[in-house]
Write a structure and sequence with these properties.
binds nicotinamide-adenine-dinucleotide, 18 helices, 14 strands
Length: 439
């Protein structure tokens, strides 16, 4: 099938590339000229494991191309995806200006009937708005499908090719059959398509993200209580999570959730509820707990060293909001950095993939190290913010030698407290017993 994917970011580029890999003919469109130029030059503008290889192969086999020209891209297409960003507006609602701008462009340029697939995460009722935008800009009747995406950065390709389910919200048989043809390779390997109305499809995405965010905030809140009552959250998560109704996945304490989805989607869902005079108490609590959790690691540093960190320097391992991505949107590291800098500290950071993006955001306020070990040299403590695999089994003797003080703040509980203390470290983590600050 001939497909245009408008918006070539983390979702659009992965979706477009995987659809091309399934045998479709795909044109990826973006209005960011530099992004399209780098793709045309064979440079992938984001870090996503496995993506570069797949893009190059599909481009080489002439099933995938890139352009800034939406008119030419949708010419001859049967399906047009909308995969542009839907960031938070100032009031917490989802900013849909990109979605509607693209819908109007598609309507204005379409020369035949299209199935317009909304991949972006959009609040309930957006498909109706897109239908109206298409009607206003086009004489031709088009179909609008809500097909929210559930991929996770870091495993995006695997997630797209191996989804738990594909959600398709539509209003009639014709787009339903188009979507079945589109995802046929996934149906063949037994992946279910759940058909529903557009509104329920839109809500499903927010329900999933709000639930996952709540799960994280729930374990984080319990971790704080564990510190007070001298219990170990790791044991507690195993104890509770082994119940098959609860499960262990996505049930880790840490420094709070970040990224381009959970924070903004949680806010947008609350906004939708408020517009209908409803208060989503649980969802609101998930956000409140998360904002506190993002400050927890810096608070532990203040508890250890006092509120004035002038003259001190900290080594930060991990900047991306999670491992295997370079995405820094709403990353907990940004809160840690801000709080430490405000307290007068200097920071040397290392991240395997996100240092370019971090430098763009933070300028020269944070020094980027050449390696994780180099970041440690002379620092007063190591602060682990993102659990990249390469941070999991370091040479602790070397860490001790390089640090000015053998102190580790571990925001992801990746080390064993007993082992570290036996090696002579002062070790602070999340919810594993009462922290013992010296003095
Ligand atoms: P992104 O910011 O990485 O990419 C969006 C792209 O759209 C950018 O390249 C931007 O230049 C382009 N764009 C914006 N307006 C445009 C226009 N008018 N015409 C052409 N291109 C335009 O965003 P993303 O992370 O890929 O997210 C896209 C959507 O998918 C969002 O709604 C997000 O909530 C949702 N989503 C994201 C993820 C994720 O892990 N990133 C997962 C599931 C769903």
């Amino acid at each position: 099938m001939n497909i245009a994917v408008v918006g070539t970011g983390y979702v659009g580029l992965v979706a477009g590339t995987c659809l091309a890999d399934m045998g479709h003919q795909v044109v990826c469109v973006d209005n960011d000229r530099s992004k399209v130029q780098s793709l045309l030059d064979g440079i992938i503008p984001i870090y996503e494991p496995g993506l570069e290889h797949l893009v190059k192969r599909s481009v080489h086999e002439e099933r995938l191309s890139f352009t800034t020209d939406i008119r030419s891209a949708i010419h001859g297409c049967e399906v047009a995806y909308i995969a542009v960003g839907t960031p938070s507006a100032d009031d917490g609602s989802a900013d849909l200006s990109g979605v509607f701008a693209v819908a109007r462009e598609i309507g204005g340029y379409a020369v035949s009937s299209l199935t317009v697939v909304i991949k972006s995460t959009v609040p309930v009722g957006t498909a109706d708005g897109v239908r109206a935008a298409l009607r206003d800009s086009s004489e031709i009747p088009h179909h609008v499908v809500s097909n929210p995406e559930f991929l996770k950065e870091g495993t995006a390709i695997e997630d797209f090719r191996n989804p738990d389910r594909i959600i398709v919200g539509c209003a009639s048989e014709t787009p339903r059959r188009v979507m079945e043809r589109l995802y046929k390779p996934l149906l063949r390997i037994g992946k279910p398509i759940l058909f529903m109305d557009n509104r329920s499809a839109e809500m499903s995405k927010y329900a999933a993200n709000a639930f996952l965010a709540t799960r994280i905030s729930f374990i984080n809140e319990l971790a704080r209580l564990c510190e007070q009552v001298d219990a170990d959250i790791d044991a507690v998560r195993r104890g509770a999570g082994s119940d098959s109704r609860i499960g262990l996945r996505f049930f880790f304490p840490g420094v709070g959730y970040g990224g381009s989805c959970f924070p903004k989607d949680v806010r947008a869902l609350q906004f939708t509820a408020m517009a209908h005079d409803l208060h989503l108490h649980i969802v609101e609590a998930a956000e409140v707990v998360n904002l506190e959790q993002k400050r927890l690691l810096a608070r532990k540093i203040f508890a250890r060293f006092g509120p004035d960190l002038t003259g001190m320097r900290f080594a930060l391992w991990g900047l991306a909001f999670k491992p295997r991505t370079d995405d820094m949107r709403e990353a907990p590291s940004r809160v840690v950095v801000e709080m430490l800098l405000e307290a007068g500290a200097a920071i040397t950071a290392y991240d395997p993939e996100a240092m370019g993006e971090a430098s763009r955001l933070m300028g020269d306020k944070v020094r980027m190290a050449d390696s994780s070990l180099e970041a440690l040299d002379g620092a007063d403590a190591l602060v682990v913010v993102t659990e990249w695999n390469e941070f999991r089994s370091p040479d602790f003797e070397e860490i001790k030698q390089r640090l000015a003080k053998p102190v580790i703040f571990d925001g992801r509980n990746i080390y064993d407290p007993g082992d570290l203390r036996a090696m002579g470290f002062e070790y602070y983590c999340i919810g594993r017993g009462k922290p013992q600050y010296p003095g």
